[in-house]
Every structure is written in structure tokens, then in C-alpha cells.
Design brief:
Layout (H helix, E strand, L loop, with lengths): L1 E2 L6 E7 L2 E7 L6 E5 L4 E7 L8 E2 L7 H6 L6 E3 L10 E4 L2 E4 L21 E7 L3 E11 L11 E10 L2 E10 L5 E3 L2 E3 L1 E2 L9 E3 L2 E5 L14 E3 L12 E2 L6 E7 L7 E6 L6 E6 L3 E5 L12 E6 L35 E3 L13 E5 L6 E5 L4
Length: 375
């Protein structure tokens, strides 16, 4: 498939080895976005111009088929129907015990759901002189397909691309006969073309989620601690990352103008920056210290709807309720610290809004990765 006139954005199908991809290109060649159909995964986002006049790479995605299949680091993975870990791979829902890892006795680690490896199809595409839109769909989450998750959920992912922004929205629809536990998020890595130690980070969060050695949050109120007590993790005042090792969830995000909380990553040597924003929810940050490739070359700034192990959190377990339309995690108008219960009859995502978008940096016109979440 290829589309668009010389004055319009162009969409072309391609491949990453044997994995099908879709690429969106700006009319003047100033930007390009490539998405793999496996997991509807953002592989590359190029925008702005570097010193050599070529578009700058702003994400650190999978670079080959083997990496995509291995899923090391979950680079730009869509996190559904749960983000992060489920303790011991087990949870109880609807009066039933569920085991996500049946037959596993020693290694009980499972994380980031199934959407990141699910097959998607390009459902529709549209281009104009100013932007392009891709809509990808998956019907792979069905009873019997994934152990421990006997629910039926359709996924729709919309990418919107322009010369100065990229937007992504994940919409889930329960098509089963019962309510289904569900929470979502996104796991992109951002780069400013230098090691992250040299970058300055600003996170408008007042609270840190405390965890045990397995990175599962502590119980009850013990899971929350004010960042005043954790100066090494406090980025309310912008500061250099240095050698900080972070794999943690930040809560209590302070909204700015328009109700959005903005996380900012800046290269102080050039003034170039990425501005990440969201409405409510949580932000997980990972400095990539355990990646198989290019450790600490990029930083994962992950908006998530729920904390790690939310399926097992006392008082925050998913419960039956009215149907909702989650979009990659965090509701627009309300703070929901628990996974959603997607209810039946199914909801149809007729109008999709952009939860993540990139907008120009105030200093130099480079894109900044904005992420908005709506319900």
C-alpha cells in the first residue's frame, strides 16, 4: 500500500525482516514514523533536523526483527491488558483465581500484558497535506488464547502524525459476556542523541511508589512515600540525571496549564528537549540499565493507568461498572488508581482522541513528546 500525492503525507508498507511495517513520511521529508504491525509498535520517530540536515531520531525502538521478537526492554510496547508486573503471575477476579503462568514453578515473572506481541492489521489510513492517520486493530485477546486471562477484548490503536508531532491512542472494547479486568500504558524510550547521564530531567511528581526487591509495591499506605524523603529520586526541580539508576513509578503528578502534567527531558548543552505530558495517572521511569543493547542511551518515560500489581491491590481491584473507553492508560477527567473493569455489552470506540502527541520545543523547534490520556 502506498498513498498520498507529492504535496501530502505518504503511507507505505514495508518490513522489518519478515515482520510487516507501515511508514508515514512527511511531504518534504522532514519527518518519518515507522510502526510494526506486531504489537502496533512504534519502531522509529524522526523529526526536526540534525547538524547534518537529516531528520533526528527521537525514539530508541527495535532495530531488527530479532529484537522485536525478543521484546528486550519492551521498546515502545503497548501495555495491555495490564502494565508492569502481576505478583507471582496470579490474581483473583470475579470470584475466580487466575494463573497467568500455569506450569511455571520457579520463574513466575510476567509483565506488560499481551498487546505488545499481538498481531494487528491496518484497518484504515488517511493523509492530508498536514498529517496522516493510521488505525490498527487486533482481535487476538480471546478466552483460551492467553493463560489466566479468559476474557475477550478488542484493541484499536490510532497513530496521528504531522511534521511536528506524533500521536498514539489505544482503545479497548470488551466483546465478552462478563466484565474484564483491564489497565494499559505505553513504554517508549526517548533519546536526544547523547547518553542520558548528561540530560536534565523534570518530573512534576510529589510521591514515589515504594516496592519490595521484586519491584512489587508494598501493601496499603506503605506503598506511598513523599519525595521529600527521597531526594535522590526527586526531580520536581529539574536536575541532571547523572548516574541515577531508576526503575520506579511516580505518583501525585501536579497538573499545569490545561490540567496536564508535563515531564521534560532536556539536553543542557543544546537546549533541545522532549516534553512529555499526561492527564492524571502515573509515570514509570526506567533508565535502561539492564537493556541488552545500548544501556543508558535512552530513557523510558512510561505513562501507566495503574501501578504495578494493580490486579492484586487491596481496595483497588477491578470491579464491575459502566462501560468505559480506556486510551493507553490514564483517563482525561478522573484519577483512577485501579485497573478498569471493562463491562459488557461491548463499547465501540467511534471517536478516538490523541493521548500522546509531540509538540515543538519552545527553544529550538524540535518536537517534544507529549502524551495525553482520555477516557
Amino acid at each position: 500500500m502506498a498513498g498520498g500525492t507529492a504535496a501530502e503525507y505518504r503511507i507505505a508498507e514495508g518490513g522489518l525482516g519478515g515482520e510487516p511495517t507501515v511508514t508515514v513520511s512527511a511531504p518534504d521529508g522532514s519527518g518519518r514514523v515507522t510502526v510494526a504491525l506486531r504489537g502496533a509498535t512504534l519502531l522509529s520517530w524522526q523529526a526536526g533536523r540534525g547538524a547534518d540536515g537529516q531528520p533526528r531520531e527521537l525514539t530508541d525502538g527495535y532495530r531488527g526483527e530479532a529484537e522485536l521478537l525478543a521484546q528486550d526492554g519492551v521498546r515502545a510496547g503497548l501495555l495491555a491488558p495490564f502494565p508492569n508486573r502481576v505478583a507471582d503471575g496470579r490474581y483473583r477476579y470475579g470470584g475466580h483465581d487466575h494463573d497467568l503462568l500455569p506450569g511455571h514453578h520457579s520463574d513466575r515473572l510476567i509483565y506488560h500484558g499481551f498487546a505488545r506481541e499481538a498481531p494487528f492489521e491496518l484497518s484504515s489510513a488517511a493523509v492530508t497535506a498536514d498529517s496522516a492517520r493510521l488505525l490498527l486493530r487486533s482481535t487476538s485477546i480471546r478466552p483460551g488464547r492467553y493463560p489466566g486471562y479468559p476474557f475477550a477484548v478488542d484493541l484499536a490503536v490510532e497513530y496521528t502524525v504531522s511534521d511536528r508531532e506524533v500521536g498514539i491512542e489505544l482503545c479497548a472494547t470488551n466483546v465478552g459476556d462478563t466484565t474484564a479486568p483491564y489497565a494499559a500504558g505505553w513504554h517508549p524510550y526517548f533519546t536526544l542523541s547523547r547518553p542520558i547521564d548528561d540530560l536534565v530531567l523534570h518530573i512534576p511528581a510529589h510521591t514515589l511508589i515504594r516496592t519490595d526487591a521484586s519491584l512489587v509495591p508494598l501493601r496499603g499506605g506503605d506503598a506511598l512515600t513523599c519525595l521529600d524523603r527521597c531526594p535522590g529520586m526527586d526531580f520536581r526541580v529539574p536536575r541532571r540525571l547523572g548516574d541515577a539508576v531508576i526503575d520506579a513509578c511516580f505518583a501525585g503528578l501536579s497538573p499545569g496549564p490545561g490540567g496536564r502534567a508535563e515531564t521534560v527531558l532536556t539536553d543542557p548543552a543544546t537546549g533541545e528537549g522532549l516534553r512529555v505530558w499526561q492527564y492524571g495517572g502515573y509515570l514509570h521511569v526506567f533508565t535502561g540499565d539492564t537493556l541488552a543493547r545500548d544501556r543508558r542511551a535512552s530513557i523510558a518515560l512510561e505513562p501507566v493507568e495503574a501501578t504495578t500489581d494493580a490486579f492484586n491491590r487491596p481496595g483497588t481491584r477491578p470491579r464491575p461498572g459502566p462501560g468505559i473507553r480506556p486510551t493507553a492508560g490514564i483517563p482525561l477527567r478522573r484519577h483512577v488508581p485501579a485497573p478498569h473493569a471493562l463491562s459488557s455489552p461491548p463499547n465501540r470506540c467511534d471517536a478516538m482522541r490523541r493521548p500522546f502527541a509531540a509538540r515543538p520545543s519552545a527553544r529550538d523547534g524540535l518536537p517534544c513528546a507529549d502524551r495525553r490520556f482520555s477516557s
